[in-house]
Design brief:
The chain is of the alpha/beta class. The chain is about 30% helix and about 20% strand. It folds into 2 domains: about 15-235, 3-Layer(aba) Sandwich (Peroxisomal Thiolase, Chain A, domain 1); about 245-365, Peroxisomal Thiolase, Chain A, domain 1, CATH 3.40.47. Helix 1 crosses helix 10, helix 2 (about 80-95) runs parallel beside helix 5 (about 150-160) and helix 8 packs across helix 9 (about 290-300). Residues about 1-10 have low confidence and may be disordered.
């Protein structure tokens, strides 16, 4: 039986999430994402152009190749990863409806999670080096996209964010690792606020890598793509109302080849440090990855939190496997549903992630008394 709602004020210290944005298969805007999550429907599937793929369909961000999407000054070639990161940053820092926007300056940091950057761009450069007349005859315009921190750097340049700029590579756990990194930047006084999120692009190279890494004989997974971005600020210091308090983020490694036990242990540790009992969890949001680790993650949470907690947020599988973008999009989906549900006020939520390499992370959030 779940615990009754408890009204809990926002702590006087500690980091709070005061804004979010998302680019996903539901659409290019935050509103598109919110509408898609509330609908509980799967994102539209499309057939990617180009070479043969392990499966013919994917959940792609619509209109991402539209000319002029980022303005005339960004008419040069950018990979899908960078375009999504720039769009998400634009949304977070400039409200098209004229609402309040966060203050940014030389002490605004940016932390982006990824798997390994733009895989398709890297593959194109390597392919050119191997097939052209000379190994160094490559398209130099593609080289910036091969750098793992290209998206974070491009977003910081576009919005003149001069604080700490970092990229964290951790697969499906990247979003939570990046959030933990940003939390430490604030705790150590190295930034006044941080944009933090994660992104993954769909590409033929990505599709074949996922197929090769999966279980032999299993059908190819439905892949997606997207970018989620959060604004993290110290409690009481932000100009925008808090949407959630980050109580704790715990990380771990599955060294026993038992992902269910690893997730359960990490979740219990995070809840203990946050001072939250498992039965008090209002919502639990796993990655829903189409892997054995994803199934183990769900089983671990099912054995820990109330059954209804796992049903409150629509499954992230509705967006396809969004890889490194998963954890941040999970938090964004949580904020969407909690913002429209009065029973969420003051309650605790759990967001987890696990990758096939054994990395595990769990975040415990507290939803404030008033959400928006």
């Amino acid at each position: 039986m779940s615990a009754p709602p408890v009204a809990v004020p926002v702590p006087a210290d500690g980091p709070v999430i005061t804004g979010w944005s998302a680019v996903s298969a539901h659409g290019l805007s935050r509103r598109d994402f919110a509408d898609g999550v509330r609908s509980g429907l799967a994102a539209a599937r499309t057939e990617p152009d180009g070479p043969r793929l392990p499966r013919p369909d994917a959940c792609l961000v619509p209109d991402l190749d539209r000319p002029g999407l980022l303005g005339q000054e960004y008419s040069y070639t950018l990979d899908r990863l960078a375009v999504m990161a720039l769009l998400a940053t634009d949304q977070l820092l400039a409200d098209p409806e004229g609402g309040p926007v966060p203050h940014t300056d030389e002490r605004t940091g940016l932390v982006m999670g990824t798997t390994m950057g733009g895989k398709e761009t890297m593959a194109a450069v390597i392919r050119g080096s191997l097939t052209n007349a000379r190994p160094f005859y490559v398209d130099v315009g593609l080289i910036p996209g091969c750098v793992m921190n290209h998206s974070a750097g491009a977003a910081a340049i576009r919005h003149d964010l001069r604080g700490p700029n970092a990229t964290v590579g951790g697969g499906r756990v990247s979003g939570l690792l990046a959030l933990n990194y940003a939390r430490r930047l604030l705790d150590q006084g190295r930034a006044d606020n941080c944009l933090v999120g994660s992104a993954e692009e769909f590409a033929p190279t990505q599709a074949w890598l996922e197929q090769a890494a999966g279980t032999p004989g299993e059908p190819a997974p439905l892949l997606g793509e997207g970018c989620g971005l959060l604004l993290l600020e110290p409690a009481g210091a932000g100009e925008l109302p808090p949407l959630a308090v980050v109580l704790d983020i715990s990380t771990g490694i599955d060294v026993d080849d038992d992902p269910q036990a690893a997730v359960a242990s990490c979740a219990r540790r995070a809840l203990d440090r946050a001072g939250v009992a498992p039965e008090e969890v209002w919502a639990a949001v796993p990655t829903a990855a189409p892997t054995p680790e994803g199934a183990a993650e769900h089983a671990a949470l099912a054995g820990l939190v109330p059954p209804e907690a796992l049903d409150r947020i629509p499954s992230m599988a509705l967006l396809g496997d969004t890889g490194a973008a998963s954890a941040t999009l999970q938090i964004a989906a949580l904020l969407v549903i909690a913002g429209a549900d009065p029973t969420a006020a003051g309650r605790a939520a759990l967001v987890s992630a696990v990758d096939r390499d054994g990395t595990v992370a769990v975040a415990v959030l507290r939803l404030p008394e008033v959400t928006s």
